[in-house]
Amino acid sequence: MDLAEFNRLPADAARGVLRPCLDVDRWIDAVIDSRPLADFDAAEAASRSAAPLTTAEIDAAMSHHPRIGEKAKGEGAEAAHSTREQAGLGALEADVQSQLAAGNSAYEARFDRVFLIRAAGRTPEEVLSELQRRMDNTEEDENAEVGEQLIQIAELRLEGILS
Q1: C-alpha closest to that of 116 among 102, 133, 104, 99
Q2: Cis status, amide bond into 66, omega within 30 of 0
C-alpha cells in the first residue's frame, strides 16, 4: 500500500492497518487524524505527536512483543513484523544467545516486563549492550525508553507498510 492509498482509506480500515504497528488507540488516532499525509516525514511527525506514551499504553502495547531473540508467537501481522525486525540479528551464537536469555530474565525480574528494543539495524552485541546499560535505569527512565522504543518500532512498521 502506498501513502495515497492509505490517505484514502476509511478510518476503520486505516485503524486495521495501523494497529499492528502500535496497538495504542491514541497513537492510531494521531496518525489517522493527521491525514492526508503528504509524505513519510508527515506520518512520522503524526506518530511523534502521540509521544510520550503513558504507562498504561506501554503496558498494553508490550503484551504483543516477544522476548528479544525469541520467535514471535502467532500468525498475525504483528508477529510477522516482529519476525522481520529480529531477522537482522541472524542466527545468534550460543554465547550471545545465553547472555540474552540471562539478560532477559534479569530484566524481567527488575522491571516486570520483557526487554524491548528496536532490533532492526542493530547487531546482537548492540542489543546485549543496551540491555545491560538499561538495567541501571530507574523505573521512570526505563518506562520512557520503552515508550521511545515502541514509537521507533511503530515508525519502522509504518514506513514498511506505506512504501
Answers
A1: 104
A2: no
CATH code: domain of residue 32: 1.10.3330.10
Q: Total structural domains in the chain?
A: 1
Question: Phi and psi at residue 50, in whole multiples of 5°?
Answer: -90, -5
> Residue 148 belongs to what domain range?
3-162
What is the reported pTM?
A: 0.84
pLDDT in tens, the chain (163 residues): 999 999 999 999 999 999 999 999 999 999 999 999 999 999 999 999 999 999 999 999 998 787 876 665 656 655 455 545 554 555 567 788 889 899 999 999 999 999 999 998 898 889 999 999 999 999 999 999 999 999 999 999 999 999 8
3 near 9, Cβ under 8 Å? no
